[in-house]
Amino acid sequence: MMRQLNYRVFLFLLPFIADAQSVKTIEDDLGIKGKIRYSGVYSDTTLPQQGPIEIRWRELENNTLKTYRVQGQTSNYQPVGKWTWEEAKWSYKINVGNSIHPEFKTKGERMKWEANFYNGIPEGKWSLTIDSVHSTGVSFERLMRIDLNYLKGKPSGVISMEDNVGSNKLRLKGQCDNDGIATGMWTFTYKTPNGNLVKEERIYQKGLLTEQRMNEGTTKTVTRIEHTINFLEKENGNKELKGATRIGDQLFQQDELGGIVTELFHENLHNYFLKGWLLSSFPFEVVRHTPAFKRLEYPLTEKEREDILYCRQLVHNQKSKIETLLTGNIDIHRARSAELDTTISFLQLHYERLNCIDSLLTRTEHPFFAYKNRYVQGINHWITSVNRFQSAKGEIFDSLTIYIPPITTTSDSLYIFDLFATVLKQNEAIFPTYYQTVENAHISVKQEGELKHLEDKIIQLLNNQQVFYRNQTGIYSLIHDKWIKTEIPALLQQYAQTDKYEDALIIGEKILARLDSLANWHHQVELMNNAPALLKARYTYLAYNPYTGENDISMTVKKRFLNATLTYLWPYLLNEIEHETDWDQWTFMWNRNSAIFNYLLEFSDREDALSKRVDKRVRQEKKPEKILRIIEHHMETISINSERKHD
User: Fold this and answer.
1) pTM of the model as a whole
2) Which N-terminal residues, if any, form the signal peptide (predicted)?
């Protein structure tokens, strides 16, 4: 008998043993932050495996106090059954009391969700109540109420909303099908800013808005969405639909008509109903869907896609060409001519129009573009946007105005992309003339820049040569008078009077080449101007004087050779360059004379048989032409022998 009694007591206590709960307390510097009552094992990353759970929590940040109270059941670590989620934001005052104890006054705004789950998914009735509460938790003012039902995580059946937060005092009642899509009649009651009461009805089929009825006082209006009604009639009658029109897959938070009621509905759902259920001690993401609306989709036809692609290519090419032409400093040269000024304005205006077309074409990439009715509502406002760019003035010649013909069409907006393609193809035929005007200006500016650079180099070199050669004697004076004072100024005058860029460039390069040569000859000029003295010094040495015991007797080697070259050859060479007027021939003579001078310097040390024969022939010769031939022949022989040695 005792064994049977013990067994019955065990069976009676079994549920209590199974439901035995633990309490986890969390503290911070302010005290107890939260208490969690749960069954089984508590984890920071998942809800308890099963059983009831209660969370009481508070947060204090930036003097804002928030409190939470959560109650529900779990199964397999997920919410199941009925749940309550409350969170309140408290405002408080601290006054002095009648004694040493201060007086606290608090007032809260509470959001309370009453929810139902099936395996972690919303299922069944859900409601949100927002109210004002005293410090005791007693409600004294209801601000908002939202009720809806869920079926497999999606809104289903009746939905209602009562909004007392704003001045509109919205009241809503509607319904959704089992997929969460708006259907049937939705009723909205609200107040306008001037206090008038409005009753609005919206009728939906398959998520599509078909009709709107409004009553404001004695005013009643009915708006039928004809294109949607026609679509549904044809769809129901299996008739042919224009342009593959269909009910789109995209879900919208508002219908295509929009308005204050749908805005308020959307805001209340997202600002209030979808809030909550976020707490560090509640490690589970609650996914909730809201009622959705559908719209007709008007997919782009293959022809439209081809036109769009073609237009994008033309826009890109034309913009790139204009960008290339209008870069650099061309803008500061607009004053060159009225033609250039207005051409730049013309291309800039077209560039803005191309940007507008490009922006409009980019809209077709947006997934919502296909949900705009191009057949009835149209996109003719696109043409208005593009036609904003019709005229512009010259920047310098601002009394001149250029015009672009407006885009016009007599067809519906279905052909807008074909129209754009036509306009852009016309640009391809028109633009090259304007391109050429700017390109010619670029060439002119470039050429002028090149000539300016050339002129700067000429002036700098000319100034340097004038400083080096003027106020000197001998060869300095010869070069200065023949080239720097006479020939180069004549070429500069010819350069200044030349209209053609190519001719000016040739003359300028010729002047620059001559000045470069004159600059490179500075060392040679100094040597050649002192050639007789330098040669005498080279052929003279000091011999030992037995009477003085020092090297003070001046001796000249190859004296007769030296006298012949200085008496007959060198004056002849100087006379040649003095009377030569052709620059190329003069340059040849100058380089030859320089080479002969170097030869004469080296000849003083030559004692080979050939050099001795040359010495003998030169000192017996008085004709400079023959002396020149003898020396040039010897120089050539020396050069040939030197090359053979290197080989």
Assistant:
1) 0.62
2) 1-20
